[in-house]
Amino acid sequence: MDNCIFCKISQKEIPSHTVYEDEVVYAFLDISQVTPGHTLVIPKKHVMDIFAFDDSLAAEVFARIPKIARAIEAAFPEIEGLNIVNNNKELAYQSVFHSHIHLIPRYSKEDDFSMHFGNHTEEYTAEELAAIASNIRKQVR
Fold first, then answer.
1. 38, 46, 100, 102: which is the annotated catalytic residue?
2. Which domains does the chain have, with CATH numbers?
3. Taking a C-beta distance cutoff of 8 angstroms, is the pair 99, 43 a contact?
């Protein structure tokens, strides 16, 4: 895509700090470095978000995530965990509309990253959960 910053980065038109590259993906340091080692993994093929992946591209891109995550862990043996984050569409905090996966090393509870999952267990009956699951299941192709 002509005006996509991540396409330009993967094509070396804009400088970046490369972590890993092959024919399918380009992985580079996020300039924000939420924590040291914060890496973005992008498909070289321009796809807007997870909804635009075909099965083949998804298999190829996501198969590379553990390899890159292990490299981050080996480079920073002091990390205590790693978040894998993929934001899709603006409401879900996607800010660059070329699909990308954040690999965010975690060093402690005090590092500069957090996520919140609300607990709404008491708001759903077993029947409501079954209906939601059934609705999604019918759409899986």
1. 100
2. 5-137 (3.30.428.10)
3. yes
